[in-house]
Amino acid sequence: MERIRSLTDLPELEAAYSRLPNLQLIEGDARQLAGMITFTCNLAENVSSKVRQLDLAKNRLYQAIQRADDILDLKFCMDGVQTALRNEDYEQAAAHIHRYLSLDKSVIELSRQGQEARSFFPKRQQNKTDSFQFHGCPQGDE
């Protein structure tokens, strides 16, 4: 009963009503804060997505560089063997063969696959910077 009287008491109602604008301000601030948090979350997700894309591109670039280095090693070994055999320097040829055998087997297999893939595509005109030919490896057009 006492509680009902306090709710109907005019000064109590006026006091509650005077606090109402403060609640509306707090609600407006809360909505604004929620909007800022949503914007920040979306921005963070976009930045994170870009970082993942850059990381993937970086990894692919490192793989391409490693592949190019491996192919250059393979070419160096093959050229070295041919030069050593022409000069009848069998120890040097053996050293190049040993280095060739120590190369990662996937490099040799990928190089072989690259040679085989050429036979499936029509021959196109190539310049010196377009590709280089490994001496001693079968070509698609031979």
UniProtKB/TrEMBL annotation:
One of its GO terms (biological process) is Golgi organization. It comes from the Eukaryota. Residues 118-142 are annotated as: Disordered. GO terms for cellular component: Golgi transport complex. Pfam families: COG4_N. PANTHER family: CONSERVED OLIGOMERIC GOLGI COMPLEX SUBUNIT 4 (PTHR24016). This is Conserved oligomeric Golgi complex subunit 4.
